[in-house]
Specification:
It is a single chain. The protein has an 8-stranded parallel β-barrel with strand order 1-2-3-4-5-6-7-8, surrounded by 7 helices. The chain is built from 12 helices and 8 strands. Helix 5 (about 70-85) runs parallel beside helix 6 and helix 8 packs parallel to helix 9 (about 165-175). The chain has a single domain (about 5-235), classed as Alpha-Beta Barrel (TIM Barrel), CATH 3.20.20.70. The chain has helices at about 5, 20-30, 40-45, 50-55, 70-85, 100-105, 130-135, 140-155, 165-175, 200-205, 215-220, 225-235; strands spanning about 10-15, 35-40, 60-70, 90-95, 115-120, 160, 180, 210-215. The chain has about 240 residues and is of the alpha/beta class.
């Protein structure tokens, strides 16, 4: 497993809101020393880079979850722009191929201030039947294993994957390769629109590096209390 001391806060709170005001209200109720935050497509499209800058200024590590997937030059330029915002992590689709991933890696600064570059393997909303419809004939686990291996070969820091694929990838790729897992639900929570889910304790025990958690925290009466409760669950198995 990746060294726990190097990881820092392992919980990434998904700010899946429609506007900056809602996201900032939630951020004010969290502790940047206890979590990172994720800004996705809807929020970034509505609020833009200024929101990211404000979160960074508040001390949050920001995971810019835009899943870049385009020609190599375009993705490289987008990753460089993300680095200029001061984000902690940025992601790209591994299915964009080797040249795209290597271009993204080369575009990021090599001075120690570079954001983590993470590859998206297979979206956790897809099951095997749906994957077959889009041409992934060997199922979720084998597809994730193949794409994660390619990402590692291209110099990426890690991948986004379902917690159910974590143990397979950890065994194949070693302890330093980061595994970022959405689809995390405390035992009392519903699965929502995720298909391949796991509890925080199960995911960390399997070898997950970072846990992306949204509604169980953001919809809680006390988001900070919910965050701390999940952290206690994680601490119990570390």
């Amino acid at each position: 497993m990746t060294d726990n001391n190097r990881l820092g806060p392992r919980i990434v709170v998904a700010l899946d809101y429609a506007n900056a005001d809602q996201a900032l209200v939630l951020a004010d109720r969290l502790d940047p020393d206890a979590c990172r935050v994720k800004v996705g497509k809807e929020l970034f499209t509505r609020a833009g880079p200024n929101l990211v800058r404000r979160l960074v200024e508040q001390g949050f590590g920001v995971f810019l979850d835009l899943k870049f997937h385009d020609i190599p030059n375009t993705v490289a330029a987008a990753c460089k722009a993300a680095a200029d915002l001061g984000v902690w992590m940025v992601n790209i689709h591994t299915s964009g191929g080797r040249r795209m991933m290597e271009a993204a890696r080369e575009a990021l600064p090599a001075d120690g201030n570079s954001p983590l570059l993470i590859g998206v393997t297979v979206l956790t909303s897809l099951d095997d039947r749906e994957l077959q419809e889009v041409g992934f004939r060997d199922g979720a686990v084998n597809s994730v294993r193949r794409l994660a291996s390619l990402a590692n070969d291209c110099g990426l820091d890690g991948v986004v994957c379902s917690p159910q694929e974590v143990s397979v990838l950890r065994g194949n790729l070693g302890g330093d390769f980061l595994l970022v897992t959405p689809g995390i639900r405390p035992a009392a929570s519903g699965a929502d629109d995720q298909r391949r889910v796991m509890t925080p304790a199960e995911a960390v025990s399997a070898g997950s590096s970072y846990l992306v958690i949204g509604r169980p925290i953001t919809r809680a009466e006390s988001p900070l209390q919910a965050l701390r409760g999940i952290q206690e669950e994680i601490d119990a198995v570390l």
